[in-house]
Amino acid sequence: MTFINYAAREINCKIVYYGPGLCGKTTNIQFIFDKTGAGAKGKLISLATESERTLFFDFLPIELGTIRGFRTRFHLYTVPGQVFYDASRKLILKGVDGIVFVADSQEPRMDANVESIRNLKENLAEHGYSFEKVPYVLQLNKRDLPTAVPVPELVSALRMGDEPVFEAVASKGTGVFETLKAVVKGVLVDLKSR
Amino acid sequence: MAVSDLVLLEADHTRFASILDRLRHDANAKVVFLIDKNGQQLATAGDLTGLDPTSLASLTAGNVAATDGLAKLLGEREFSILFHEGEHDNLHINVVAGKAILVVIFDERSSLGLVRLRVKKSTTELGTILDDIVARSQAQRASTVGSFAPFAEITDDDIDALFS
Questions:
Q1: Does B162 sit within 8 Å of A91, measured CB to CB?
Q2: Residue B30 falls within a domain, yes or no?
Q3: Domain A3-193: which topology?
Q4: Strand pairing partners for B6?
Q5: Do B2 and A91 touch (CB under 8 A)?
Q6: Where are the domains of chain A?
Q7: What is the dihedral of CA A194, B4, B6, B11, to 10 degrees?
Q8: What is the CATH number of the domain that holds B77?
Q9: For residue A94, which phi and psi values (nearest 5 degrees)?
Q10: Residue numbers of the domain that contains B61
């Protein structure tokens, strides 16, 4: 649910990074935080366990500049990937404007990727959203690992339609901003087309 | 998308701000916030020095969402009031018309009883305005074919420029 504030001349959108446990959602957001200028970002809030696993969500507000006199502000959230935090994941999807699915390229995590996409669709449906209509980007993360499944195989298993696909190594920042740009574009184009 | 966008006009903001100002004064509170259930800040009153309103809004919304989840598990429709007591500052949070969240930060110069009393009156007034905004947003959406000014005319170049 985009929030257009005419009083403050700003538009606020919510982007959620979704994916299985340890796929690199927080790493994506952390990299964006590290590389964004102080004036264009807020605090990175991480509600995590002592072992740095996301417990509820990570939150990073960023500002990308102005369009037609309106400041564009994006609130980036991650969900906890671990299976048993499903109730929290569902809450965070509420009001979402765009989704990045971060897939873990490693062969042993294929089932977890597939299950997480299925879970995403289910949770979106519970909020009354249609998966096909929400701006959506697929990121294939951890491309540098030796057990990474070839890209065509991942695409064939995980790509749901004609969504943009990006290869990434989030720990080094590869593909992180490309992914963000694509989802931001998707959200703005969606807004324009309404 | 199934949910309408929320469009806040200057006049809405003024109405919110005047209610929040009065509430802050009557409840002897430090700061008063109104945020939507997704964590977007709608209006504030009071001295924000040293506060991070964006983070505060997002965490409050998360807190309320988690509490809503708990309520549903217990078969309750919602827990409409949350209260957090600190050593110096206290946080009173309540849901307004099921759509927004009113946050009152107060210290020893006020009391929970006074805040609750004043919040009650303001909540009704804020709820009426929120209902108006939602009804207007929905009507606008229904009557606008394929465009949502001023974003209907965004070009690819505009979007690319954000990242240049």
A1: no
A2: yes
A3: Rossmann fold (3.40.50)
A4: A3
A5: no
A6: 3-193
A7: 90
A8: 3.30.450.30
A9: -60, 130
A10: 10-161
List the structure tokens of B81: 């009031």
Per-residue pLDDT at B4 exceeds 70: no
Query: pTM value?
Result: 0.89
Q: Is B88 on the interface with A (CB under 8 A)?
A: no
Q: Is residue B1 part of a domain?
A: no
CB interface of A with B, residues 88-107, below 8 Å: 88, 90-92, 94-95, 97
Is B106 contained in some domain?
Answer: yes
- Looking at chain B, the whole-number percentage of residues with pLDDT higher than 90 is 65
Q: What is the ipTM of this complex?
A: 0.79
Rounded distance, CA A23 to CA A110, Å? 11
Residues with Cβ within 8 Å of B35's Cβ and at least 6 positions away in sequence, in order, are B41, B42, B57, B60, B61, B100, B101, B103
Burial (0-12, 13-18, 19+ Cβ within 10 Å), B80: middle
Could A67 and B159 be called an inter-chain contact, meaning their C-beta atoms sit closer than 8 Å?
yes
**Inter-chain CB proximity B2 and A68 less than 8 Å:** no
